[in-house]
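Technical annex, item 7. During the second reporting period the consortium partners agreed on a shared format for inverse folding records so that results from different sites could be compared directly. Each record opens with the tokenized structure and is followed by the designed sequence. A conforming record, contributed by the partner at site C, is shown below for reference.
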């Protein structure tokens, strides 16, 4: 068998890498050491095929360097967290003190009959109610952890508007899938909407860069793992609400990742979106407290 040189004067690491490529495609080869470096020899009849396979490999794996994936870094994400905490604490105090001489829990809790009664506000108001102090503290903590990066990606105002919209929709679906006697309350659906939002945005943005399928899927896999670790355990855990919240956030994130959102430094749209998110919550509670009055 006649051998011809495919490449000469190669560094040892490059020669070993190219030899693996040839081995992977089933081309016989021989690696020789010479004074100038390593050499790769192949059968004369396979020289053209070997050159073609190596060229393809180099195009796919050693192309021109790609620009680093840039992530938005909106400031004031902590302000969104502070507003979230303020709303939850304020509603908790109002419910405990029975402000207005009404039961905030009975007016705001969510159940399957809300749609038939026309009580549109309950999927929103239920997000701000909690069963006890531990329930409240858990949602404050995890809400801050998951919503902070969402605020950096979208800006705090837009992020919280998307979270409120997604979580309310998820809660409405969750209620309709439960028996009429089942009551729903707590911000955990919003917490996992934030998690789904950032996981899907990271997944979509990676699609524009040269990464392997596993690297692209990594954000979604990590998000699902966090959902399983933090949202699928406990006696009183509403697993369906957590899963639906994550799914709602993921759908919104996937659908909006490519939109031309206002960049960092543009405060006007963030104030407008944040104000709209607060207005939705305020309008829902106003409707809840005045219903039947």
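Designed sequence (site C submission):
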């Amino acid at each position: 068998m006649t051998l011809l040189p495919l490449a000469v004067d190669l560094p040892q690491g490059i020669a070993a890498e190219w030899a693996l490529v040839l081995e992977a495609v089933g081309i016989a080869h021989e690696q020789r050491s010479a004074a100038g470096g390593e050499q790769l020899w192949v059968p004369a009849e396979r020289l053209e095929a070997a050159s073609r396979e190596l060229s393809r490999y180099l195009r796919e794996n050693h192309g021109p360097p790609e620009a680093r994936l840039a992530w938005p870094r909106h400031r004031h994400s902590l302000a969104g967290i502070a507003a979230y905490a303020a709303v939850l604490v304020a509603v908790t105090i109002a419910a405990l003190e029975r402000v207005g001489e009404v039961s905030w829990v009975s007016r705001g809790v969510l159940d399957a009959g809300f749609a038939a009664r026309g009580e549109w506000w309950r999927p929103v108001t239920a997000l701000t109610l909690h069963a006890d102090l531990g329930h409240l503290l858990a949602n404050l903590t995890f809400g801050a952890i998951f919503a902070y990066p969402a605020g950096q990606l979208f800006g705090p105002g837009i992020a919280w508007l998307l979270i409120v919209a997604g979580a309310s929709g998820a809660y409405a679906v969750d209620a309709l899938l439960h028996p009429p006697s089942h009551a729903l309350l707590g911000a955990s659906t919003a917490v996992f909407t934030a998690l789904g939002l950032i996981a899907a945005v990271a997944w979509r943005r990676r699609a524009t860069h040269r990464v392997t399928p596993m690297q692209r899927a990594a954000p979604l896999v990590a998000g699902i793992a966090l959902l399983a670790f933090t949202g699928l355990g406990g006696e009183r855990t509403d697993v369906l609400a957590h899963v639906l919240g994550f799914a709602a956030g993921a759908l919104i994130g996937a659908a909006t990742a490519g939109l031309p959102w206002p960049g960092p430094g543009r405060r006007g749209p963030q104030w407008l979106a944040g104000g709209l998110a607060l207005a939705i919550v305020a309008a829902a509670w106003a409707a809840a407290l005045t219903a039947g009055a």
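The two ends are 97 Å apart (CA to CA). The chain has a mean pLDDT of 84. All partners now use this format for quarterly exchanges.
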